[in-house]
Amino acid sequence: MSELPPPPRPTASSPAPQISAPRSRKSLATLPHTPRTLSSSQASSSMRAPSSPRSSSSRSVLHSPTTYVGPSKSLINTRVPSSPDTSLRRTVSIAAFPQPPKAGSRPSTASSISGIQGLRPSGSLKERKSSRLSTSTISSYRTSKTTSLIHENGDLKSILSCEIRDMDASPPQSRSSSAQGSYSTSATTYEDGDDAAGISKSTLKSKESRDTTKGNVIVSVRVRPDVGGVEAIKTSEWTVDGRRAIISFNGKEGGDYLYDNVFSANENNAKVYDAAAKRLVRRVMEGYHGTVFAYGMTGTGKTFSMQGTATSPGVIPLAITDIFSFIRETPHREFLLRVSYLEIYNERINDLLSASVSGAPSTVQQEEIKLREDSKRGVYATPLKEEIVQSPTQLLRVIARGDHARRTGSTQFNARSSRSHAVVQIVVESRERAPAGVSQDRRSGLLPGGVRVSTLSLIDLAGSERAADDKERRTEGAHINKSLLTLGTIISKLSESKEKASGATDKEGKHLPYRDSKLTRLLQPALSGNSLVSILCTIQLASPTRTHAGETLNTLKFAARAKNSIVSHAKRAEEAMGSGGTDTGSRVLLERYRLEIQALRNQLECQTKAQVEKEPKFEEQQLEKEAHARHEEQMLEMQLARTALKERIEHLNRLILCSKSTGVNNHGGLPSLGRLSRQSAFDAGTRSLRSSVSQSTLSAYGQPSNRPMSLISVNSYDPAVSARLASSLPHEDDEENIGEFADGKASTQQQIAALQADLNDKNRYISTLERRLLQARRSSHSRISIGMKSSSPNAELTDTMALLRERDMEINELRQQLDDKDRMLTALRSAARHRDLAHIAIDACGPGMKETLSHRHSLGDSDYALTYTPDNNFSPRFEGTPEGKRKSMDEMSRILDEMIQDRVESGQLIKGSRGSVRVVTGSRRASESIPGIASLTTSNAD
Ligand SMILES: Nc1ncnc2c1ncn2[C@@H]1O[C@H](COP(=O)(O)OP(=O)(O)OP(=O)(O)O)[C@@H](O)[C@H]1O
User: Fold this and answer.
1) Model's pTM, two decimal places?
2) Are 187 and 322 in contact (CB under 8 A)?
3) In this prediction, does ipTM exceed 0.95?
4) 149, 623, 779, 845: which could join 849 in a potential S-S bond, CB 3.0 to 4.6 Å?
């Protein structure tokens, strides 16, 4: 205890809200200053609490408190709220109190309730006396005095005396900084005072009905450390006894003030939270509404207590931590948290979460926020931004954002003074989880239970202050003081109306000026009893520049009045069923979200079903697409094949034209080269039946006469061979064009006609090929279509491959034939050249020789012969003797005969009925396996 000189009386000029002074306070017997020790029976805790106006018989006559300071003889002079007629002053010798046991091991006795009974305004003196008699020690009062918010079972039983095993807060080590920057508290190990009540219930019974609901309001006072530890201005006026939760003032209007908690200057935020707010927060999580607010003059530590610092978090961050701890510990329920943050600045409500990010007041004019009231929600601000939060960190961040936007300014006593009342509201929605195996109602998506909605309001009020020099500060101060004054008035009137009504009814608040300020209007539900309330009043006893006795007394009186006048009927919020209809229902986000989730799930299910149904169609479409792509590919391949064929034809044509352009015919050596080339072209693939190997090939041998050149004439030396050849060669009648170039000297017109015929043939061939391609494409397409329906893509592929193979074979065959013809052509050219040379030589030998040779030649007794060389070329060989020549010719005839025979055997040539031979095209053979092509060939042949 410290003794301080009497503080100066509060000046009349002080604008601090003057909470109506306890008019009921009456001077009791002034106790002698002489210390005396009272026996236990005499000991009384003459604590004074503000009494109702009616109970005071003497107003503003406050006795100087008698403070006895001494280790064994000090007295606590406390005043007890007096009954209308009496006020009681009791002096208790501290020496008589045994030292309280250490935290956690304090004795709990039935008699421990007696001390606090004396504090109850409703308790009569008689009762208090009798209970005092049963009080053995003040320590037992101390331990039993603490009230609890709500009985564990949720009944509205106020257990007036219950021991809290660890009233001195959870040990500091139980609070640690978590990874997320939040703090873990002792929430998980904290044992509610309710459960730990160490008192005899029978003792309580008689008090229960009377004191019902009183325990739902906790009033605590926190003393801020003196600034700079200045001792000079300290007086002996104040005595703070944190252990007993008593503050004594020895000056004028002095007395002892007892609260639920008194925190001395050296106690930290954690302890303040544990004692003043922790249980309330738990109750909110269980479904009660709860309000914690800090009240006090400027610079006394309201914001410090509510927000705290990084190293010493205050009520708000610790509550947040506990909220999430509770959620973790309650797996059988699910929760949804939403938070809003507003300030009341100059009687205007600002949404701190809608403010600009910079924290400066939003440049965009906010929609005016109004207070509304409805039966379910009570008084609420709208429109207000609410944010749904899922983690402590997120919640802390949201609140930090709001803090940043809050108005602060420098005042005389606080460099960063809050210039507005700030209200953090955390709405807790919770509902029972469906037990494992129990499915929720599929149709409605509802669980058996409804949703419970409760609200935790954490309010940091602006501090009352003297008039400031600055105009802005003055305006702010006026609004702040006005609202705080209204609050004080309401508290005072609540107490008054209670006394008027003898604590019975009509505390509806109709006549209470809640509407006089936005703050009181917003606090209406809490003040009128719908909420659990914890009031934390902050005071500062001295500073280097001033003392705060007047303001401090006002705060203490406010706190005492609040304790005695606010009666909370807080009930656990009912579980709202359904999601629509009522306003409450529509507010319950948890329900709405659940229904939305259910609806989305249903939607998803439907979509999945539809997709499953559509899948085969989709697969079909995919197959069709693939088939189409394959078809395209095949078309492309066929196009390429067609181009290749055309190129081939062109190439062959070029070859033929080249042969003609050599003008071999003009030399008369190989008069029917045109015919031969025509033959070559045919052999290379022409399907014209006009082509005939015999006439073209064999007539190429230089027959000087005009008669058609044939192998008959060539082989005329050997009648047998000639006859054979003649029979094998086409008859003149057989071939419409036989003899066309038979003289080997076809006229230009004939050549042109031959070329024209060649051209026609080729064009026909091209168109035939085109038709075949077209047909092949159609058949391929139809095969694909069929394949799409019945066969696998592999079958189509096989077909296509087979087709391509056929084409390849055909091309190869054509190439082979072309090679043969090339060789034959080369041989014939060579033979023609030699023949010409032979003629020249004869000419050079003179007319006689020429005649002879000419004659011999005409007889077939040629001086040269075609020999078949190993490289499969025919080469003329000049035989010196007629015998040799004849042999050579025979040999040549034989070779040609064999060749023709070979071809006939191999099916490349067909022997006509009259010995003629015809070329069987390769495509005809190849086409045997392709019906379309076979028919084409046939038609062509026709
Ligand atoms: N219990 C305490 N321990 C240490 N410092 C404290 C305590 N209480 C308050 N302070 C310090 O005192 C100063 C003022 O405190 P704070 O801003 O919390 O006062 P306030 O009551 O909120 O004032 P206002 O009403 O003007 O906003 C701050 O610097 C704060 O750190």
Assistant:
1) 0.49
2) yes
3) yes
4) 845
